[in-house]
């Protein structure tokens, strides 16, 4: 399918490359056309890789990935243009990390709201699916990098949008269907974004960003 | 050893019972002496189980467990009496859940502060170790209820206090040493308390509180 990837950082790069390899046509969008990083990505990713403005990429894609920094996501979607977003699924990979007080970051929004909810409210024409924001970009597109079972949390208001994203996660990125945990509607973006403080600390402690969480389930309690 | 358990709910009950079974003498503390639930617990738990006021339990214990609701923890420690807390390890099992807007709860404090930090600041005479707050009480005292590896996050300012608590977790509750993840100082209570929103949602989704997270680690990134 045609996919628009908003953002030229490590996350956009990894996701765009994996999608091209899986046979999709991908346009990487950035603030201006012919962005240096986007042009370099097109050259590296090969046939099927395109680049353009946020608006170009949003118009091109049948499905969109938000791979921008959380603090920039709203303005990027404004730049993408509401007419180019209408009815489309947006996979929101961003986290509202606030580095203004240094490391470790806090969250710019949490607890009773989330970035995922903010974007869904501000752009009701989008079908926002929060996913992939709880793992590093290496793991996002190559879950077999880690041994055994580990889980990806997804949420969003529309079951059909979540199913479309789940299929892509399985077919393009290699996630096992049984490791996708649908938490419910977009309000659960609070729960997944609030994993970031412990994620950041584990990253520092483990010395690698290549890790993930597995939900280990036992028997139901005796009545 | 002599251990004071503050709180008469399911958590205090489970922890107190497991500690008695492991051979410790345990006093369950509540707002008033001869609290009905504490008296019932003493009868059920058998030799080694005692009950009294918060102050009695704090004075009795060489080590203390905070098993009260997060919103009550500060006033419980005031009632316990600073003179009874001085120099002692407090295992802070509580979470700052706020049910004032119904279910699911939000957190009364998070992001740039936490209940664990608030208690450590308010009671500098205590050596607060945040632990066990990310699992249900069944799992706290019986980790083998769940299959395979799953992890417990602990944090606190004092390595010796964390080591004392870790030994108790291993010897009295059966946690594997390799499944205890020391995240660092008490500021990491933010990270573990912020797991609660997703924990609560997983509980509803899985239909059982008997689950936990396992950190699955892959190779370090290629340079």
Provide the fold topology.
2 copies of one chain form a homodimer.
Chain A: E1 2-6, H1 10-21, E2 25-30, H2 36-45, E3 49-53, H3 54-60, E4 63-66, H4 73-80, H5 82-85, E5 89-92, E6 97-98, E7 106-107, H6 115-122, E8 127-130, H7 137-140, E9 152-156, H8 159-171, E10 180-184, H9 189-193, H10 196-206, E11 211-217
Parallel strand pairs in A: 1-2, 1-4, 2-3, 4-5, 5-8, 9-10
Antiparallel strand pairs in A: 6-7, 8-9
What can you tell me about this protein's structure?
The structure is a homodimer of 223-residue chains. The first copy, chain A, is of the alpha/beta class and 223 residues long. Chain A is 37% helix and 22% strand. Chain A has 10 helices and 11 strands. Chain A has helices at 10-21, 36-45, 54-60, 73-80, 82-85, 115-122, 137-140, 159-171, 189-193, 196-206, and strands at 2-6, 25-30, 49-53, 63-66, 89-92, 97-98, 106-107, 127-130, 152-156, 180-184, 211-217. In chain A, the strands form 2 sheets. In chain A, strands 3-2-1-4-5-8-9-10 form an 8-stranded mixed β-sheet, with helices on both faces. In chain A, strands 6-7 form a two-stranded antiparallel ribbon. In chain A, β2 (25-30), α2 (36-45) and β3 (49-53) form a beta-alpha-beta unit. The longest helix of chain A is centred in the C-terminal third of the chain and has 13 residues, at 159-171. The first copy, chain A, is globular, with a radius of gyration of 17 Å. The termini of chain A are far apart. The model of chain A has no long low-confidence stretch (mean pLDDT 97). β11 (211-217) of chain A pairs antiparallel with β11 (211-217) of chain B, so a sheet runs across the interface.
